[in-house]
Design a protein that fits this description.
The chain is α+β, with helices and mostly antiparallel strands. The chain has helices at residues 95-107, 130-135, 141-173, 181-209, 211-230, 235-263, 269-293, 302-309, 313-323, 328-333, 337-351, 378-399, 402-410, and strands at 2-5, 8-12, 20-24, 30-34, 39-45, 51-58, 61-68.
Length: 415
């Protein structure tokens, strides 16, 4: 469609693709070239001017460039030497708005006919905060890598929670321990005490030393504690090791989900969170396989070998340290601007989106815990706590005791 307004022409094109396109500049000159991955552009051409301003848009992204008559410049990855018109962002949605924009351009002496356009400065893309730059991105291989790396840690967490359900039944049958039903309940329950404490303090610590640091540390903590539990020779050592395991498990869950959420694009955040949660099922499946194949087939020490497998997060901590990025919000809050910019550009490069300038990050506002119980959030806090209480009560109440109950009923975990 072509609009004519005060002898100026505005061309609105269809969708551009990676393939070559031919663009008419409105003055009899046409040039071919490639516009990479952008779509929905607008051209504004003023009579007597030798430059054309191009506004390229895609969901969550805005990019402005100048195309000089006779030269089709790359619209992605750099600026031309010619002059550019002031930003038309957002693209005018009415004739009145467009008239005002064009009048403002015409009144600017920089763009009057006869000026040396080669000496003017190209327009810059609008500034976005680093978190806004992350929000606009399409889902890409960097998101996939973060999701899988965090998900494997999440699966280890679930594996450990599920593993103790099978292990307790085997420990109870070990002549060295010969646990009573009450003692079995202690071993099963003390881990959840640790998880409650770990979940409460994990986020607090992560805000001070970093999400990535805490995520890695939790894997090390419950990996070492699993090894210690595998070597236990007394009930007290079993309980102490299980408590420490719970501390690591409880701190890891909220930190991992927060890290994934912070890097997720706005339109994909819910999907990525659900996919992260799905790794929990993977962990439980692995725990059940260990309970079926390892514990009954490795003699009296089968439960010890099972817990030794539970120490594998120690090795995986090395992977997370290398492949999981630190939270951009945390880095900005600590004044580590270069690291924050590097993290954002890594995700932009993976998504094929050109970086833009971001202002200096601002420290996050401090929110006190007691605000959760103020009039503004009290109803939501109670509703969420109640939901999680009943979910966990039924879920853990059933699954942590099921292997022991089945072993008591049938005399074996695998019968």
């Amino acid at each position: 469609m072509t609009l004519v307004l005060n002898n100026a022409q505005v061309f609105r094109s269809g969708v551009f693709s990676r393939s070559s396109v031919s663009i008419s500049l409105g003055n009899g000159v046409s040039r071919g070239g490639t516009i990479s991955t952008m779509d929905a552009s607008s051209f504004v051409i003023l009579p007597g001017f030798v430059d054309v301003h191009v506004h390229l848009r895609e969901p969550g992204f805005s990019y402005k460039e100048t195309i000089r008559t006779g030269t089709l410049a790359a619209a992605h990855g750099g600026y031309t030497a010619g002059c550019a018109m002031p930003n038309l962002n957002p693209v005018p949605d009415s004739m009145e708005t467009l008239q005002m924009e064009l009048d403002a351009i015409k009144s600017d002496a920089t763009y009057q006919k006869g000026n040396d356009v080669s000496t003017t400065t190209s327009a810059q893309p609008a500034q976005l905060t680093r978190n806004e730059r992350l929000d606009r991105l399409p889902f890409n291989k960097a998101h996939r890598k973060l999701l899988v790396a965090s998900g494997i840690g999440w699966a280890f967490d679930a594996m450990d929670v599920g593993l103790v359900s099978f292990v307790v039944a085997a420990i109870a049958a070990d002549p060295h321990f010969n646990l009573t039903p009450t003692e079995k309940s202690w071993v099963l329950s003390i881990g959840f005490v640790g998880m409650a404490i770990g979940a409460a303090v994990g986020g607090f610590i992560a805000d001070r030393v970093g999400r990535k640091t805490v995520f890695t540390a939790t894997l090390i903590i419950f990996g070492i504690a699993n090894g210690a539990m595998a070597l236990s020779w007394s009930l007290g050592m079993l309980l102490g090791a299980r408590l420490i395991i719970g501390l690591g498990l409880g701190a890891e869950l909220p930190v991992a989900s927060t890290l994934v959420s912070e890097f997720s694009p706005t339109k994909q955040r819910g999907r990525m969170t659900v996919l992260l949660e799905s790794f929990w099922a993977v962990g439980w499946i692995v725990a059940a396989m260990i309970g079926y194949f390892v514990i009954p087939n490795t003699g009296d020490w089968g439960w010890r070998w099972a817990l030794a497998i539970g120490a594998l997060p120690l090795l995986y901590a090395i992977v997370t340290r290398v492949h999981i990025p630190e939270s951009v919000r945390f880095l900005e809050a600590k004044g580590r601007e270069d690291e924050a910019e590097k993290a954002v550009r890594y995700f932009e490069e993976a998504g094929g989106v050109a970086p833009v300038t971001s202002p200096k990050g601002k420290p996050l506002p401090k929110i006190k815990t007691r605000e959760l119980f103020g009039s503004k959030y009290l109803a939501r806090t109670i509703a969420i706590w109640a939901t999680w209480f009943f979910v966990n009560f039924s879920y853990y109440g059933a699954f942590t005791w099921m292997p022991s109950l089945l072993a008591d009923q049938f005399g074996s975990l695998t019968k």
